[in-house]
């Protein structure tokens, strides 16, 4: 046995895969992906797919950039590994921290490195609680998050996240985390206008702060646009009201930039898009465009100063916090994003064009809403466009459309009956048209 059959068999017998039904996968066999270029991936049988999901929201720069491979090889030969624990640092890590600080909002100039977004949010959980202990307000330990948010799969990450199916496995959330309403107008807005609903959803934060006791609340955490939850773009009234509330009660604002960071919205960060003043920004994914695992937490200067000056030893970190190879790759990724004006192109051209293109699907009898910011988009599937009534078997139509699109060579994702798009930022106009054409064909066939 060789090639596809061999890899499928090895996976069947020895692999346990994340976020899938492993018993079903055993029967079906996994598709083997062997190579990629630009916005496309190929399987081991030679089939080509346009990847409208950039891997897992991460390959911002596109696949197959030899510059990233070259810096990884060079760094592996020169210094494949050294740590940051022994009062030591390595050149790519120092340079990457400086490069991130230059891109981040002006008041945020320090970075703590992790390997992933989940580890970044686990770090956040400890950092904010430590911060208030150091500020001599040790009772401030509650973190408020949102239902249907995604902040990762580690224990604290999944607890901060508001995914009920994740909480059900393993007895989450851990104590000290409260979840409030998400700003999902399409599903939860009822008869309210988006603007009214945005205010209502934001004021759920104030209500919860008052219910918990303002003196006990440490932080509020949210994604600028919820990604995995369904590319939920909050109404325009939402974020200004949230910003007002966290200021009023002196609560730390943690803006999870793992998806929105590094150009996805057409700005460097979702916080720039919504004009936010975060205290902490967890990052990952687009930082290295997925070429090497790396994440981190960008810290506001005031916050970092308290931890640095009052904590003594910071008793937290990972063997690979600031891995030099990942850091070199991330640095080169940021250089290319800047040098080629990729983020600007999303803001000025690709993002507005994508929104327009998605509008071509808005008249379809099964589509209740289309929405997009930058190269992040969603299509809501419904049984009744007027009432926004969903299909009775939630998720079936979404999965069907996703599978039909895949048959026609397009990778997109469905969460429930929402189709999600997050293509590489280097997507060209022709590929964008292909996404729309194939999605339309899938919708027609599913209808
Ligand atoms: N935060 C957000 C907003 C995410 O979308 C994700 C992953 O999708 C994470 C955190 C977790 O990142 P990772 O999968 O790198 O641990």
Automatic annotation (TrEMBL):
Cofactor(s) essential for the protein: pyridoxal 5'-phosphate
Cited PROSITE patterns: AA_TRANSFER_CLASS_3 (PS00600)
GO molecular function annotation: pyridoxal phosphate binding; transaminase activity
One of the record's GO cellular component terms: cytosol
Keyword Transit peptide: no
Record-linked InterPro entries: Aminotrans_3 (IPR005814), Aminotrans_3_PPA_site (IPR049704), PyrdxlP-dep_Trfase (IPR015424), PyrdxlP-dep_Trfase_major (IPR015421), PyrdxlP-dep_Trfase_small (IPR015422)
Entry keyword set: Aminotransferase, Pyridoxal phosphate, Transferase
Keyword hit for Transferase: yes
Transmembrane segments: none
NCBIfam families: PRK06105.1, PRK07480.1
Protein family: Belongs to the class-III pyridoxal-phosphate-dependent aminotransferase family.
Protein name in the entry: Aspartate aminotransferase family protein
Species the sequence originates in: Natronospirillum operosum
């Amino acid at each position: 046995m060789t090639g596809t059959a061999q890899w499928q068999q090895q996976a069947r017998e020895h692999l346990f895969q994340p976020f899938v039904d492993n018993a079903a996968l055993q029967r079906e066999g996994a598709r083997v992906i062997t190579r990629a270029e630009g916005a496309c991936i190929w399987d081991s049988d030679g089939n080509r797919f346009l990847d409208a999901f950039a891997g897992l929201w991460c390959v911002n720069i596109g696949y197959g950039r030899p510059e990233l491979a070259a810096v990884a090889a060079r760094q592996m030969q020169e210094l494949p590994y050294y740590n940051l624990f022994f009062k030591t640092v390595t050149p790519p890590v120092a340079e990457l921290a400086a490069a991130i600080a230059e891109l981040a909002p002006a008041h945020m100039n320090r970075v703590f490195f992790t390997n992933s977004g989940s580890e970044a949010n686990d770090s956040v959980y400890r950092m904010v609680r430590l911060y208030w202990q150091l500020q001599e307000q040790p009772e401030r330990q509650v973190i408020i998050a949102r239902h249907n948010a995604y902040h990762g799969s580690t224990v604290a990450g999944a607890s901060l996240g508001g995914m009920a199916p994740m909480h059900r496995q393993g007895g989450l959330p851990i104590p000290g985390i409260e979840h409030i309403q998400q700003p999902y107008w399409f599903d939860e807005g009822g008869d309210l206008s988006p603007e009214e609903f945005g205010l209502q959803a934001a004021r759920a934060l104030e209500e919860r702060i008052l219910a918990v006791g303002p003196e006990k609340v440490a932080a509020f955490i949210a994604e600028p646009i919820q990604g995995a939850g369904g590319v939920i773009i909050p109404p325009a009234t939402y974020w200004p009201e949230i910003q007002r509330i966290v200021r009023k009660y002196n609560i730390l604002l943690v803006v999870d930039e793992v998806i929105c960071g590094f150009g996805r919205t057409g700005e460097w960060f979702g916080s720039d898009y919504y004009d936010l003043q975060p205290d902490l920004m967890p990052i990952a994914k687009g930082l290295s465009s997925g070429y090497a695992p790396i994440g981190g937490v960008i810290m506001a200067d005031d916050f970092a100063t308290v931890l640095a000056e009052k904590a003594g030893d910071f008793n937290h970190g990972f063997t690979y916090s600031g891995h030099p190879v990942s850091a070199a790759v991330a640095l080169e990724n940021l250089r290319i994003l800047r040098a080629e004006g990729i983020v600007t192109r999303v803001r000025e051209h690709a993002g507005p064009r994508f929104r327009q293109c998605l509008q071509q699907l808005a008249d379809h009898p099964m589509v209740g809403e289309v929405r997009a910011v930058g190269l992040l988009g969603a299509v809501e599937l419904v049984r009744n466009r007027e009432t926004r009534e969903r299909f009775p078997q939630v998720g079936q139509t979404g999965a069907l459309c996703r599978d039909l699109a895949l048959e026609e060579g397009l990778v997109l994702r469905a969460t429930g009956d929402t189709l999600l798009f997050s293509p590489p930022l280097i997507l060209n106009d022709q590929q964008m048209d292909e996404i729309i054409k194939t999605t339309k064909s899938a919708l027609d066939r599913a209808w």
